[in-house]
Protein backbone atom coordinates (compact mmCIF):
# COMPACT_ATOMS: atom_id res chain seq x y z
CA UNK A 1 0.00 0.00 0.00
CA UNK A 2 1.37 3.42 -0.90
CA UNK A 3 2.24 5.89 1.85
CA UNK A 4 -0.52 8.36 0.95
CA UNK A 5 -3.05 5.54 0.93
CA UNK A 6 -1.83 4.43 4.36
CA UNK A 7 -2.10 8.02 5.58
CA UNK A 8 -5.67 8.33 4.35
CA UNK A 9 -6.75 5.00 5.85
CA UNK A 10 -5.01 5.99 9.07
CA UNK A 11 -7.01 9.24 9.12
CA UNK A 12 -10.21 7.32 8.42
CA UNK A 13 -9.44 4.97 11.31
CA UNK A 14 -8.68 7.92 13.61
CA UNK A 15 -11.98 9.59 12.76
CA UNK A 16 -13.93 6.34 12.98
CA UNK A 17 -12.43 5.37 16.35
CA UNK A 18 -13.00 8.88 17.72
CA UNK A 19 -16.67 8.86 16.70
CA UNK A 20 -17.10 5.35 18.12
CA UNK A 21 -15.47 6.33 21.42
CA UNK A 22 -17.56 9.50 21.77
CA UNK A 23 -20.74 7.60 20.94
CA UNK A 24 -19.94 4.85 23.42
CA UNK A 25 -19.14 7.38 26.14
CA UNK A 26 -22.44 9.17 25.49
CA UNK A 27 -24.46 5.95 25.71
CA UNK A 28 -22.56 4.89 28.84
CA UNK A 29 -23.19 8.28 30.48
CA UNK A 30 -26.94 8.08 29.79
CA UNK A 31 -27.10 4.54 31.19
CA UNK A 32 -25.04 5.57 34.20
CA UNK A 33 -27.24 8.60 34.92
CA UNK A 34 -30.37 6.41 34.82
CA UNK A 35 -28.77 3.75 36.99
CA UNK A 36 -27.58 6.36 39.51
CA UNK A 37 -31.11 7.82 39.77
CA UNK A 38 -32.60 4.34 40.22
CA UNK A 39 -30.05 3.36 42.87
CA UNK A 40 -29.92 6.59 44.88
CA UNK A 41 -33.19 8.35 44.09
CA UNK A 42 -31.17 11.47 43.23
CA UNK A 43 -29.68 12.97 40.12
CA UNK A 44 -25.95 12.34 39.74
CA UNK A 45 -23.69 15.19 40.84
CA UNK A 46 -23.34 17.74 38.05
CA UNK A 47 -19.97 18.77 39.45
CA UNK A 48 -18.43 16.35 41.98
CA UNK A 49 -15.84 19.01 42.89
CA UNK A 50 -18.61 21.24 44.31
CA UNK A 51 -18.17 21.39 48.13
CA UNK A 52 -21.97 21.04 48.51
CA UNK A 53 -21.72 17.49 47.13
CA UNK A 54 -20.88 15.00 49.87
CA UNK A 55 -17.35 13.62 49.62
CA UNK A 56 -18.43 9.97 49.56
CA UNK A 57 -21.01 10.70 46.84
CA UNK A 58 -18.45 12.66 44.80
CA UNK A 59 -15.83 9.91 45.08
CA UNK A 60 -18.34 7.18 44.22
CA UNK A 61 -19.63 9.12 41.20
CA UNK A 62 -16.10 9.84 39.96
CA UNK A 63 -15.00 6.21 40.36
CA UNK A 64 -18.09 4.64 38.79
CA UNK A 65 -18.50 7.13 35.94
CA UNK A 66 -14.79 7.23 35.11
CA UNK A 67 -14.56 3.46 35.04
CA UNK A 68 -17.72 2.86 33.03
CA UNK A 69 -17.06 5.59 30.48
CA UNK A 70 -13.40 4.57 30.14
CA UNK A 71 -14.32 0.93 29.55
CA UNK A 72 -17.03 1.88 27.03
CA UNK A 73 -14.57 4.07 25.10
CA UNK A 74 -11.91 1.34 25.14
CA UNK A 75 -14.36 -1.29 23.88
CA UNK A 76 -15.57 0.99 21.09
CA UNK A 77 -12.00 1.80 20.04
CA UNK A 78 -11.09 -1.91 20.07
CA UNK A 79 -14.14 -2.64 17.92
CA UNK A 80 -13.09 0.09 15.48
CA UNK A 81 -9.58 -1.42 15.31
CA UNK A 82 -11.04 -4.88 14.71
CA UNK A 83 -13.23 -3.54 11.90
CA UNK A 84 -10.26 -1.69 10.39
CA UNK A 85 -8.07 -4.82 10.55
CA UNK A 86 -10.83 -6.95 9.03
CA UNK A 87 -11.30 -4.40 6.22
CA UNK A 88 -7.62 -3.79 5.42
CA UNK A 89 -5.91 -6.98 6.56
CA UNK A 90 -3.70 -5.21 9.11
CA UNK A 91 -3.91 -3.16 12.27
CA UNK A 92 -4.10 0.61 12.01
CA UNK A 93 -0.64 2.22 11.98
CA UNK A 94 -1.38 3.81 15.37
CA UNK A 95 -1.74 0.38 16.95
CA UNK A 96 1.30 -1.77 17.38
CA UNK A 97 1.51 -5.11 19.09
CA UNK A 98 2.22 -4.35 22.71
CA UNK A 99 4.26 -7.41 23.62
CA UNK A 100 1.64 -8.95 25.92
CA UNK A 101 2.52 -12.44 24.70
CA UNK A 102 4.09 -14.05 27.78
CA UNK A 103 6.16 -16.44 25.61
CA UNK A 104 7.92 -13.46 24.03
CA UNK A 105 8.37 -11.45 27.23
CA UNK A 106 11.92 -11.00 28.48
CA UNK A 107 12.87 -13.01 31.54
CA UNK A 108 12.64 -11.07 34.80
CA UNK A 109 15.90 -9.80 36.17
CA UNK A 110 17.01 -11.29 39.46
TrEMBL record:
The chain crosses the membrane at residues 12-28, 58-76. Keywords: Membrane, Transmembrane, Transmembrane helix. Residues 95-110 have a biased composition (Basic and acidic residues). The keyword NADP does not apply. This is DUF4235 domain-containing protein. InterPro entries: DUF4235. It comes from Nocardioides cavernae. It comes from the Bacteria. Residues 86-110 are annotated as: Disordered. The keyword Transmembrane applies.
